[in-house]
Amino acid sequence: MDTRTFILIAAFLSLLFAAPARPQSWTASLAPHPKAPPLFMAVDMARQRAFVVRNKDGELKKMKDMSCTTGMHGGGKLLEGDRKTPEGVYFLQGKATGGLDFDSFGNTAFPLNYPNPVDRIQGKTGNGIMIHGRGRSFGPRQTLGCVVLENDDVDTLDRHVRIHATPVVIAESVSLTGKAGPPPEIVLGTWGWIKARERRENAFFEIYDPARFEKSTGMSFARFRQKILQEFATSRWIDLRIEDLQVVQGPDYMVSVFAERTLPHGEQGWRRLYWMRQVELWKIVGEEWIPQNLGGSVDYAQLVGKEIRERLQECAQAWDKGDLKTLLRAYDRTGRRNDAQGREAVAASLERDMAAKKKNPYSAESMVRVTKHGVEAKLKADGHSRTILFLPGAFNTWLIVSDEAAKQP
User: Fold this and answer.
1) CB 258 within 8 A of CB 243
2) Mean pLDDT across the chain, nearest whole number?
3) Is 9 part of any domain?
4) Among the options 68, 73, 132, 164, which is catalytic?
5) pTM for this predicted structure
6) Does residue 166 share a domain with residue 108?
7) Residue 20 lies inside a defined structural domain of this protein
8) Distances from the Cα of 59 to the Cαs of 28, 36, 53, 258, in angstroms?
9) Where is the chain membrane-spanning (predicted)?
């Protein structure tokens, strides 16, 4: 082999191995499951079709089937100006109806949250990706990266979807008959995130992947930790009320999205947590918070008073039935009852008192108030009193963290 040939081969190999690999197109195989969004959009770029899909009665059904056109250079957007449509899970960020060039955008445009946190981790660039109309007819793959629908379809899209809440799944191909839904760890991990934040626990930080989180946010994890610890220091606990928890499957990542109310402080909006695998565990790699008035006013003291009295009634009924298992579920795993602390010690304490036929300690009239330590219930009957302290538990419940009888003089 002469020198010139060797140099050409070496140059070719160096280019071959140095060039970034073209991303493999994503086939979204979506399955009905209890935590799938009740309604979402899907864009199938291979067929140049867009759907509004309903998750109901164990099936994913197309409510609306629309023609669309996407990026002229295909999908899997990587760089600004590459004329590709992104693949992944996105959300409508708003609705624009004024100041649009009708020929290019029609009457209505819905911006998407591209790049999302996972896109930023993967170094993807660009912006301005929207779902919009067009003032002229279109054929397949004619856009600079946006998803274009017929004007009549896009003008009425928000009759079917909710801004910030409804996912838009964009893939090379979309199947609505997948067999496997998202792993259960995502729902459990989301509730773990909620509980740790409510209780101001250091376990909160263990749910994150620090390296990827830094890439998705542009903030050092040390700075993020400091910011959260400052938040924790302002109050010992909060009550996060979660509604509409959904889990959506993306290419190599998951998104859990939910409506969040922070009580008693009153903050409310939509939260999105982005999850990726770190070895065998799912970790949060990015998040989005969109403040929004979710509607409805809450008298927190009245709400909590009702909920705590209902919880005490459940405990009273379990005591009368001798149902130790149900009663024990009302206590936090690290809870305390008189001098007993921890699940086993509390169980033994309850069992002794139930065996001794002591009077039901949960049936007395209660006075409930919100304190800096938690929600406190004082129960008095026959000259005896108990103070029971509750903190929020998983799945919007209340757990007993302290249950003490007043010492007799």
Assistant:
1) yes
2) 91
3) no
4) 132
5) 0.88
6) yes
7) no
8) 16, 11, 10, 22
9) none
